[in-house]
Design goal:
Blueprint (H helix, E strand, L loop, with lengths): L9 H24 L2 H16 L5 H23 L6 H24 L7
Helix pairs in contact: 1-2, 1-3, 1-4, 2-3, 3-4
């Protein structure tokens, strides 16, 4: 096997960091618009391969998991509103997603990878 090790250039890392920050912004804005997270997840999947092997890959994984688990818990919350525990589930989902957006954004700002 003759595999090449690709060392990302500084410009590529800077570009990926900007894209990662944009996705965090889109996720945060989704609390006000409701749809920007969809644009964020699409960007994640399009650019995920470019981030492979860099410290930013962990942010892409973190963001993707945040979207899908957040969507799952929001759906469970909405489905259980009729029995009133949905309010608790929706509030917990809101807090959890807010935590993940803030933690990810802070780690990105400090050039730290996310635990995955």
């Amino acid at each position: 096997m003759n595999e090449e090790i690709i060392i990302p250039q500084e410009d590529q890392i800077k570009s990926l960091k900007t894209i990662t920050q944009i996705v965090y912004v889109l996720y945060a804005l989704s609390y006000f618009t409701g749809v920007t997270a969809i644009a964020g997840i699409i960007i994640n999947y399009i650019k995920r391969e470019d981030a492979a092997g860099t410290w930013l890959e962990s942010h892409f994984i973190w963001q993707i998991r945040t979207f899908w688990y957040g969507l799952l818990w929001a759906a469970i919350g909405w489905a259980t509103l009729i029995i009133l525990i949905g309010f608790v589930v929706l509030f917990a989902s809101f807090c959890w997603m807010l935590y993940r957006i803030i933690k990810g954004w802070l780690n990105l700002n400090d050039n730290k990878p996310m635990p995955v």
